[in-house]
Specification:
About 25% of the residues are buried. The chain has a 6-stranded parallel beta sheet, covered by helices on one side. The chain has a two-stranded antiparallel sheet with strand order 3-4. The chain has a two-stranded antiparallel ribbon with strand order 9-10. About 25% of the residues lie in helices and about 20% in strands. With about 240 residues, the chain is an alpha/beta fold. The two termini are about 20 Å apart. It contains 7 helices and 10 strands.
Length: about 240
């Protein structure tokens, strides 16, 4: 899964742009998941399912054509991403997220100092940002091209295996063209790789060593296995 966040202050046009990008990507045959950050709480419709929902309670809504889960507690975005399957993740908001690139929407040029953070792959709207390509409603397809080329998603582990202290530091290098996703050792380990629904799962070195050691220990009692062998384990539905 590739990802990009759409970042700007209130009334900058984030929702409109996110919808346009989702439609454009889907028109190209891509699947899209959208995550939205909000400070006003999540809208609960006046339905039986909505009446069930309250703080601290989990509610699952099921119909013939869709499904929804309401958690009555805060969740972090990386915790719920394994529930999704898509080619692209579009995040509306999330100014503090530092492990994916962003498109910034400025109301005034001074806002770039707080919104960019070295993660911007472009700006959009009536106010352009310095040092990055600028797009508007007449060049939305060019912006989609940019996203297809430059979107990425780091595991947000801050494990340090890449040699950087945080995922933000390596994300900034990827945006600047000074590194690639191969620099993230938690999803590009030569010793152990785990994918779920086709997406790599980030593992810090400590967890990787525990999982690998446990698997190798169990395999050691099986005929047909020898230490140093390449092993593939697949768990299907």
């Amino acid at each position: 899964m590739k990802a990009v966040s759409i970042v700007g202050y209130k009334k900058s046009g984030k929702t409109t742009l996110t919808r346009k990008l989702a439609d454009a990507l889907e028109a190209r045959g891509k699947t899209v998941t959208i995550a939205k950050f909000t400070h006003s709480g999540l809208t609960k419709p006046d339905t039986d399912t909505g009446r069930f929902a309250k703080e601290g309670r989990t509610v699952i809504g099921l119909s013939e054509s869709e499904c929804a889960i309401h958690w009555g507690a805060k969740k972090m975005l990386p915790d719920v991403l394994p529930l999704t399957q898509a080619d692209y993740l579009l995040v509306e908001g999330g100014k503090t997220l530092s492990w994916l690139p962003r498109v910034i929407l400025l109301r005034e040029t001074e806002e770039q100092a707080t919104l960019d953070r070295g993660l911007a792959i472009g700006s959009y709207g009536t106010v352009s940002a310095d040092g990055v390509p600028h797009f508007d409603e007449t060049t939305i397809e060019e912006l989609v091209d940019c996203i297809e080329e430059k979107a990425f998603l780091l595991p947000a582990l801050d494990c340090g295996a890449c040699g950087e202290a945080t995922c933000e530091a390596i994300a900034q290098k990827i945006v600047a063209g000074k590194a690639t996703m191969k620099a993230c050792k938690s999803i590009n380990s030569s010793g152990l790789t785990i994918t779920v629904n086709g997406s790599p799962v980030g593992l810090n070195p400590f967890v990787e060593n525990i999982i690998r050691g446990s698997i190798e220990g169990m395999l050691g009692s099986l005929k047909g296995y020898a230490p140093g062998s390449d092993v593939e384990i697949k768990i299907s539905k």
